[in-house]
Write a structure and sequence with these properties.
- The structure is a homodimer.
- Chain A is built from eleven helices and twelve strands.
- Chain A is of the alpha/beta class.
- Chain A folds into two domains: about 180 residues, Isopropylmalate Dehydrogenase, CATH 3.40.718; about 140 residues, Isopropylmalate Dehydrogenase (3-Layer(aba) Sandwich).
- Chain A is globular and about 50 Å long.
- In chain A, about 60% of the residues are buried.
- Chains A and B meet through helix 4, strand 6, strand 7, helix 6 and helix 7 of A and helix 4, strand 6, strand 7, helix 6 and helix 7 of B.
- The structure holds 3-isopropylmalic acid (2 copies).
- One 3-isopropylmalic acid sits at the interface of chains B and A.
- Chains A, B: One of its GO terms (biological process) is L-leucine biosynthetic process.
- Chains A, B: Its cofactor is Mn(2+); Mg(2+).
């Protein structure tokens, strides 16, 4: 197993160190190559993602990423030039984001019930396509546009993936989230594709919900969701909310998948670089550790993935949530649990 | 005071009847003209918003709208052809949506604290502009686009309004919500406008937050928000979430304002037509009643507006939330309170 690791910025390196500690316990033979992409490299060399590095990354089985982003870098530079560039160059069309309320974890919701959903967020289109521009900048007549691009090809492969996942889950329920009543063109495409693909999955029940109403249900009845399929931006927004109601982004893992396996998939915590708490050893590495579990699942190492998840579940059920211990302590506990 | 009333679809007519009952107590001389726009008229005549009706509407001091939308009408027809058409034709650029947790009201959040925010949502641009289309429909090469259009003119007038509102509030705090790290063009325009206008309001503290992170804070620390200014789509999403955490969309009012007063402003509950509960007399008319208070404020009838708000606050503090009474009972209580 050849893994590329991009620790990145802020708390990225801290949580990745613990994730690798845990990985080392289950796959001691994994070969790790580190790449110093991120804010520091950009400051030092102006480089974001050199072609040569992109080439090397392609030559791995998967990528593990910590977080990118730093207040010293103008907004968008690292996101568009590094993180999103990786997602787009490596065709990470399925952005997989499970949200589960683990026993013992406190939700900010008073009466959360059981929450166990997967958000399948489209990863290579929509408003993230980077189409748009500024006209007459810095004049009273300035116009800024952003274009959401949705293709039949791009929507269909993600919707198919979501249906396959739904069909494999006990509840077999899929919710399309969009804003079809306003974004009528993109909404029409998404709705039609879901309708067509649903014909091949008569066992999966299908619901539709507007994105605004979905945020309401996320806080009043999150247990209703099983698999959600949605576009890139709605998925971005809803997965932060889903992470919040399941105990916070310190626990939320994600996989950026090329399900054709032509390119290595990339796994990362949903949280960002959190520069405000970086270097203090207080970031929760659990999201990074769970991202390793998703990575192992993707590479067929299901048993190791289950062991990591079970260890996380045990730790969350038994930890003192008021003083969970620092980054290292949590990492040490998880490493010990995994190897026991 | 000449008011145009569009009861609309679903629970719209039910909640509007109660809102008018309350209005009648404070402004008995208000002249009401009803317009039967909505699903039924569309089915009967194919009409959504005839030019002649639009002309008549312009001739009023304000518009009160219940809700539009019905499952029998394809998604988008009534929204784009009636509701959004009204907002755009009447230049309702400031979509004002207060979210306040009234004493006695239960939030789905375990520990909500005090919540009292105003969302100033841009109302005439962004992804709501209706720019976009379908290419190669129903082929494997279909492309659907949606264009977010943001102008210096459009953003600035809304940001100015938000700063003015923030400056008039005790906390004097304004949060710009956007996704500047991905939507770099629109994000750049919004950020620059906020920065420029902030120079004229040194008393207002300014924060920026990504829309995804904002949903987290809405459920973990909603009390941090005072005035939020944001674009049309982000505002749509966040105000449903803000309504949810402050007790539900049964209580959330909104104003679609043309702050130049060239056109009548329009007031409506944030909730939709809720066809599933229509006709049962169980819809809470409070959001519609609070929309009347916003309407009266806009028309300078501040004392009447305060009386309605105080009546709602009293009713919410003293009602049995497990059995609040039906639509009529709540309307009757509020009408009695207002006139007492
Ligand atoms: C950092 C940012 C570009 C990214 C996104 O918007 O996708 C993040 O919010 C995420 O959800 O992974
Ligand atoms: C019905 C719909 C078009 C509308 C919107 O998206 O603005 C509604 O959700 C709202 O918030 O008023």
């Amino acid at each position: 197993m050849r893994l590329a690791v991009i620790p990145g910025d802020g708390i990225g390196p801290e949580v990745i160190a613990e994730a690798l500690k845990v990985l080392g316990e289950v796959i001691p033979t994994a070969e790790i190559t580190r790449y110093d992409l991120g804010a520091a490299r950009w400051h030092a060399t102006g480089e974001l993602l050199p072609e040569s590095v992109l080439g090397e990354l392609r030559d791995h089985d998967a990528i593990l990423l910590g977080a990118v982003g730093d207040p010293s870098v103008p907004s968008g530079i690292l996101e568009r030039g590094l993180l999103l560039r990786l997602r787009f160059e490596l065709d990470h069309h399925v952005n997989l984001r499970p949200a589960r309320l683990y026993p013992g974890v406190k939700s900010p919701i008073a009466d959360p019930g059981e929450i166990d959903m997967i958000v399948v967020r489209e990863g290579t289109e929509g408003l993230y396509a980077g189409n748009g521009g500024l006209l007459r900048k810095d004049t009273p007549h300035e116009i800024a546009t952003e274009v959401s691009v949705n293709t039949s090809f791009g929507v269909e492969r993600v919707v198919r993936d979501a249906f396959t996942r739904a069909a494999a889950r006990p509840r077999k329920h899929l919710t399309l989230v969009h804003k079809t009543n306003v974004l009528t063109h993109a909404g029409s495409l998404w709705s039609r594709v879901v309708e067509e693909v649903s014909l091949q999955h008569p066992d999966v029940t299908v619901a539709y919900q507007h994105v605004d109403a979905t945020t309401i249900h996320m806080v009043t009845d999150p247990g209703r969701f099983d698999v959600i399929v949605t576009d890139n931006l709605f998925g971005d927004i809803l997965t932060d909310l889903a992470a919040a109601v399941t105990g916070g982004i310190g626990l939320a893992a994600s996989g950026n998948l090329d399900i054709t396996r032509r390119n290595p998939s990339m796994f990362e915590p949903v949280h960002g670089s959190a520069p405000d708490i970086a270097g203090q050893g207080i970031a929760d590495p659990t999201a990074a550790v769970l991202s390793v579990a998703l990575l192992l699942d993707h590479l067929g190492e299901h048993e190791s993935a289950r062991r990591i998840e079970a260890s996380v579940a045990f730790d969350l059920a038994t930890r003192d949530h008021n003083s969970p211990g620092g980054t290292f302590a949590i990492g040490d506990r998880l490493a010990a649990l995994v190897s026991s």
